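INFO  loader      accepted 1 record
INFO  loader      residues=294
INFO  predictor   begin
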Amino acid sequence: VFLSRTDQAGSAEELAQDVLMATPTGSTIFARITAPNLSADRPPVITIGDQTLAFEAADPGQFNLTHTLNLRDLIPATTSEADEATTTDDDGRQRVNIGFQAGRSDLGDWDLLITPDLEPSMVLSDSPSVSEDQLVEIPYAAIDDYGLTTISGLLRLMAPVEGRVTPPVMDEIIAQAPEGQSLGDRMITTARQDLIAHPWAGLEIEIELTAQDALGQSATSETDTLVLPMRNFVNPVARAIIDQRQILTLRPRTGPPEVAAELRNLAANPEAFNSDTVVIIGLAALATRLDINR
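INFO  predictor   done
INFO  writer      dumping tokens
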């Protein structure tokens, strides 16, 4: 919203006196005033209810101010502190008057209705599934009164992992708005994620989604389960390597010696992969790294 002053008839300043502008808590005022006759020692000021804030000097005669409006800062601590400049209604909305002064000049004032910014809501609209092209599809619906900024997913491995009391989790960003923008106040869609190369491919996971708004408020969906898709390898060597990856995922302590031995066995049978020297070197290098990292 741009607030401007003009000297023409029917000016924005005159019209603003009769308009109560709804403004969500957390909104930021960006103001710039040109006042060549003022200095950094006598800057313009803004009054917000019973608060008075000074502008900061930029270039000579130029003054800037940035201030965030928060309901908790505007609501009087006691009823006796309330005045005509700030009033609160039954819905928790705060009416506040903001005015600008430069020296002895009144540059105008506006009435704002500072409204609460409610937490978003998020639900899975159907169970996650795997498409024909091996994409994980997660139908969801997310709503926020002033716009969503991030949709993220939490993947939680269902199978027990050696040496862990709590299951491992991984975060996936599904949608993120550019800074200062939103994804809209309503998203009813299906997220499609390519997780076929994920280390947990072929294993069962829990999925939950989280929606976040610009204030950092969030809502999390219920959880659902899914077996992550994995490539259907025809080559037996490739299938064996994937099996070893799952062993390392579920048995990170006792699995490496077993996996290293199996990788060396695979490398010792080059006819299984057309005696490809790159594969032989790669398998041997992986086995050695597992031995070193034990």
